[in-house]
Design goal:
Layout: H1 2-19, E1 20-29, E2 39-42, E3 48-50, E4 56-63, E5 66-72, E6 75-82, E7 91-93, H2 97-101, E8 121-125, E9 147-153, E10 156-161, E11 172-173, E12 175-179, E13 182-183, E14 190-191, E15 203-208, H3 212-215, E16 221-226, E17 235-244, E18 248-259, E19 262-273, E20 282-294, E21 300-313, H4 320-325, H5 332-336, E22 340-355, E23 360-376, E24 381-401, E25 404-426, E26 438-461, E27 466-483, E28 494-497, E29 501-513, E30 516-527, H6 531-534, E31 548-561, E32 566-578, E33 581-587, E34 590-595, E35 598-613, E36 618-635, E37 637-638, E38 641-642, E39 654-664, E40 667-676, E41 692-704, E42 709-718, E43 726-729, E44 744-746, E45 751-761
Parallel strand pairs: 1-7, 12-16
Antiparallel strand pairs: 1-4, 2-3, 2-5, 5-6, 8-15, 9-10, 11-14, 12-13, 15-16, 17-18, 17-45, 18-19, 19-20, 20-21, 21-22, 22-23, 23-24, 24-25, 25-26, 26-27, 27-28, 27-29, 29-30, 30-31, 31-32, 32-35, 33-34, 35-36, 36-39, 37-38, 39-40, 40-41, 41-42, 42-45, 43-44
């Protein structure tokens, strides 16, 4: 009997030993930062341990399946169930709403938390980029109050911030942009962000309103993109495939390697689509790479490169009749000429962060950009070639000014750009085949552009609750023009420059109550004319255009509520622009830039996020973003017509976007609603678009297949309501002959997508 009992006890002990195992892993934030002192509780027994250095943890003698809860102040608690000891590899914890207000902005010259920054900054996190499909980066900007993206196609996107840039015809200007501190906006002011894969980025910071005191020419604002710093040790391969309506396909492969102080990441992706409309085929190949090295002294070297090759056909805008009855058509002339744009683009930069001491440090970047483009249009063929080099350096000093804790920042940014443009006849009408055929040369110009920004900024804590900020930028911009085509009597060759510009800024931020801040600021900004604005249909350069300027006045509130579960932000602003740069239509798809009058941009922006935990397994997050605009011409007379007091065209009167996100363990459901107001189509305000509403759904499920394999599947529907709407417009379109004006770019009808991602950790 005793012998039998001993055998039973030994058997039970053996089974217990088989089921009891050690569980190892690491805990990090969504941005890759390792999290120490995370409380890890086994819910069945109540046993508790804490994560150590680099977020590492080891839970011994667990009985599987095991349910663990991870919690840390400032982060949402997370409960995970593990079937065996092989499953734990990395636990990602999301920041709470209160923590959002404390995120340190990396784009400002003196980094501060969002709540203590005396200006409006829209933040798009890595999680926010997962709310929609992964084909198009800039569509995510439409959820940011005060920002609107006109989307004619995957390659026809135009960004405006607080109405600045809305009158640009086919591209984005008046906005500065950087990726990891490397300028993306050209020296003459053009910006293209379509090349960058949303899965490449960790965060986007959008500074709204004139930011010239920090970044130079940027009347609308600045967009700062950041790739993740890979901090946890990992070697992994990630593969992604997405398929959607209109035969849209995306292939992506990402290789990551982190060892000691070195981190590397290389990604390849290819996007192909037939598009919703005729002549809408799209094909883009891109490669990006990042590298970082932290030396023993705490100094950090980083490298970024990007290569893009694009060929995208252009369906162009439609008349009202075609927009209503045949939205999938292309404009007749663009279809017949098979108009498209193609280019190869390179961005390369090396940055070095150096600590002289605990209170004094510097960041320096050298960079190179190039773009070789070819664009057959019905009215001519444009051939462009651009190369630029530059440097940006910044010094930061923690010190005391008049006995007050302060930080000083000063530095310079300079760029030299060589730009050659030629135009040719398009003889497509002389041939039966649907194609563009180059003819005689119409123009050939070469520009050597240069700019220099000198900037300085000070932040001073006047008291424990009151922060003062002041900045100043000095800009010099000029270019040398060489006319390589026109006869001597029309030769425009020569040196040209814009007037030097001083751009000041001041701001105050006051914490009236714990976690609740009020701010006020005033700033001055400017934007120089772009090449497309100076180029006439004959290929000549309009050298008489002046710099557009503006003054921004702003007040706002940023604060946490309901025991830090709710974060809200409210901004009121007024921007007065002068020497307004507008496009005057002179032919089908042709325009010239002119300085014409003044405009007032007034508006209100509101954003909020509420994060709640219903149970250990269920979290629900609510979002609300909105803005209402009052944009009008102050004094504007063009060709004898007085438009003073009229609304600015091309901008929705309002945007309202509530959304909900439900997380149940590894399953996530996101539902986003967007309502946009009507847009004036012309300066006379004689025609408007209809307001429209969009409803989008995305479902995602992640699963760990083994210690080394992770997988995720997603499915989404865009425009569930199948709304017929104008996603973009051409302002002041003119009908020639008996044709109607072509104002409208139709948005995509209801469309679907689904994808699979597999990650293998070495």
């Amino acid at each position: 009997m005793i012998k039998s009992l001993a055998i039973v006890l030994i058997a039970i002990s053996s089974i217990s030993q088989i089921n009891a195992q050690n569980l190892e892993g690491e805990v990090s934030a969504a941005n890759g930062k390792s999290l120490e002192n995370v409380k890890i509780e086994e819910l069945a027994s109540g046993r508790i341990i804490f994560s150590g250095v680099n977020g590492k943890f080891q839970f011994s003698d667990l009985q599987f399946p095991a349910k663990l809860r991870f919690s840390l102040l400032g982060y949402a608690s997370k409960v995970a169930v593990f079937q065996n000891y092989k499953e734990a590899l990395e636990i990602i914890m999301e920041e709470e709403a209160a923590q959002l207000s404390e995120i340190i902005l990396r784009g400002s010259n003196i980094p501060k938390s969002i709540r203590r920054t005396p200006s409006a900054v829209g933040l798009i996190s890595k999680d926010d980029l997962k709310k929609s499909d992964n084909f198009n980066l800039v569509q995510n900007f439409n959820f940011v109050p005060g920002v609107f993206v006109s989307q004619g196609a995957l390659n026809t996107n135009k960004i405006n911030i607080r109405g600045i840039g809305s009158r640009s015809q086919y591209s984005t200007n008046r906005i500065k942009a950087y990726i990891n501190g490397i300028p993306l906006t050209t020296a003459e002011g053009e910006l293209t962000l379509d090349d960058f894969d949303p899965e490449l980025l960790e965060r986007i910071e959008i500074y709204k309103g004139p930011v010239s005191s920090s970044f130079g020419a940027g009347l609308g604002g600045s967009i700062n993109l950041y790739t993740p710093r890979l901090r946890n040790e990992q070697k992994s391969v990630v593969g992604t495939y997405t398929y959607g309506s209109f035969d849209s396909r995306k292939y992506r492969v990402n290789l990551n390697y982190v060892k000691d102080s070195l981190d590397l990441s290389i990604a390849y992706n290819n996007i192909e689509s037939e598009g919703f409309r005729q002549n809408g085929n799209y094909d883009r190949i891109s490669m990006t790479g990042t590298a970082g090295y932290l030396n023993k002294s705490g100094n950090y070297w980083s490298l970024f490169f990007s290569y893009s090759s694009l060929k995208a056909y252009i369906p162009s805008s439609l008349s009202e009749t075609d927009f209503k009855n045949s939205p999938d058509k292309a404009a007749f002339t663009w279809f017949q000429s098979a108009g498209y744009e193609s280019y190869e683009r390179n961005v390369f930069g090396v940055s070095y962060d150096h600590k002289f001491s605990e209170n004094f440090r510097s960041e320096t970047s050298v960079f190179f950009n190039s773009r070789d483009a070819y664009e057959p249009r019905p009215f001519n063929i444009l051939d462009e070639d651009m190369h630029s080099v530059g440097l940006r350096t910044k010094f930061n000093l923690n010190t005391s000014v008049f006995g007050k804790t302060s930080e000083l920042s000063f530095g310079a940014e300079t760029m030299m750009e060589w730009y050659e443009t030629s135009t040719f006849q398009n003889l497509y009408e002389d041939f039966e085949a649907r194609e563009s055929v180059g003819g005689a040369r119409l123009s050939q110009n070469f520009q050597d552009r240069k700019y220099l920004n000198l900037f300085a900024e000070i932040n001073a804590e006047l008291s424990d609750d009151l922060l003062f900020e002041a900045g100043l930028n000095f800009n010099l911009t000029g270019y040398e023009l060489e006319d390589r085509f026109n006869a001597n009597e029309n030769d425009q060759s020569g040196a040209y420059s814009f007037e030097p510009v001083l751009s000041p800024r001041i701001g105050l931020n006051y914490e009236a109550f714990t976690g609740k801040n009020f701010y006020a600021s005033a700033s001055y900004g400017f934007s120089t004319p772009t090449v497309s604005q100076t180029l006439t249909p004959e290929g000549n350069i309009n050298t008489d255009l002046k710099t557009e300027t503006g003054v921004n006045y702003e007040i706002g509130f940023k604060g946490n509520w309901l025991k830090n579960k709710l974060y809200t932000e409210l901004n009121l602003y007024s921007i007065q622009t002068r020497n307004l740069l507008v496009a005057r239509r002179v032919g089908p798809d042709q325009f010239v830039g002119v300085n014409a009058g003044k405009a007032d941009h007034k508006g209100v922006e509101f954003s909020s996020v509420f994060k709640s935990q219903l149970t250990e397994m269920v979290n629900i997050n609510w979002f609300l973003n909105s803005n209402i605009n009052f944009y009008e011409f102050d004094k504007f007379v063009d060709l004898g017509e007085n438009y003073s007091g009229n609304e600015l065209p091309g901008i929705p009167k309002y945007m309202v976007s509530p959304g909900i996100e439900v997380l149940v363990q590894d399953f996530t459901a996101r539902l986003n609603y967007q309502a946009f107001g009507e847009m004036a189509l012309n300066d006379a305000n004689s025609k408007y678009t209809d307001p429209y509403e969009l409803l989008n759904l995305k479902l995602n499920y992640d699963i760990r297949l083994s210690r080394y394999f992770q997988a995720g599947v997603n499915f989404g529907i865009n425009n569930i309501l199948n709304e017929h709407y104008a996603a973009s417009v051409v302002t002041n379109a003119v009908g020639f002959g008996n044709s109607e004006p072509r104002y409208y770019y139709p948005g995509n009808p209801r469309n679907y997508y689904g994808g699979l991602q597999v990650k293998y950790s070495l």
